[in-house]
Amino acid sequence: MDSISKLAVIGAGKMGETLIKALLETHLLAAEQVIATAKHARRLEEIAERCKVAVTLDNREAIAAAEVILLCVKPQTLRDVLNEIKSVVRPEQMLISIAASATTAFIERHLDNTAPVVRAMPNTPALVRAGMTVLCPGKHAREEHLQRARQIFDAVGRTLIIDEKYMDAVTALSASGPAYIYVILESLAEGGLKVGLPRQVATELAAQMCFGAARMVLETGAHPALLKDAVTTPAGCTIDGILQLEEGGLRVTLIKAVVEATRRATQLIES
Ligand SMILES: NC(=O)c1ccc[n+]([C@@H]2O[C@H](COP(=O)([O-])OP(=O)(O)OC[C@H]3O[C@@H](n4cnc5c(N)ncnc54)[C@H](OP(=O)(O)O)[C@@H]3O)[C@@H](O)[C@H]2O)c1
Question: Domain ends where: 109, 136, 162?
Answer without folding.
Answer: 162
